[in-house]
Amino acid sequence: MTTPAEGKRSISVPATVDELAKVRAFVRDSVSRFGGSKRVADDLAHAVDEATCNVMLHGYRGKAGDVEIEAAVRDRRIEIRILDRGPIFDPTTAQVPAPGAIPAPTRPGGMGVGIQLLRTLTDEVHHSARPDGGNELTLVRSIDGRHEED
Amino acid sequence: MAMTIDVERLGGTTPVTVIALAGELDASNYEQVIDVARNAYADGSRGLVLDLEHLTFMASSGLFALHSAVRIMRGETPPDAEEGWGALHQMAQDHDAQASSVRLAAAQEPIARVLERTGMLRLFALDGTRAEAVAALQGA
Do B81 and A112 touch (CB under 8 A)? Predict the structure, then answer.
């Protein structure tokens, strides 16, 4: 059974990497309010950092714009939505190195390690193009521990 | 949280620079780390210790900075932003982490996890303390 999302929170920041610290703090605070562990907060803050950084550097490419981050919990799953108005880019289908492969951060904040991390740090990643332009990326992570953390 | 960088130059037969990072290393400040590594090499340092005891977060841009530091201390140019993966694979193949002139000290658990997840531990020796890292580089 699906319950309605609880305690939905959001922030909007200008699309510049100087705002990433604020975005991470927002995610950590949200996870904590939802009752998630520090580990879940760390992982989600990192995943959101990589996804948001991609939007800022490779979506907006220095152009003015905003990124909106929404956080909610539903059925003990934390959902973080990242909304932008940049060109369509789907990180769920981008080619990335296999987990644990040779380091490939060939471009800071670029495709590759960042996308690999955002996948491994979450349980699910969903992308959709917004009808009125831009991307909606949803990162999902169970509030409870995962097998690797046992 | 911003990041602070504290640099200490040590003498000895192998001049070593210790770079202590505190706070959060991300896309807004990773270039500062590359600049410090470049200056250290230019000033004659042939060993680098990155003291991560007070670093609480490292994004993929931080991994890029660490990788750049390895290249700089090998007397090579840092990786070009548009460079492909071929050079990195080559580098990993001929690289011995234990013999690296760049050592990471006192990494906290979240940082160590990121390094492990991304395969970066193949490029770096990880030491428990700053003193151990310095000793390893200076052959003490």
Answer: no
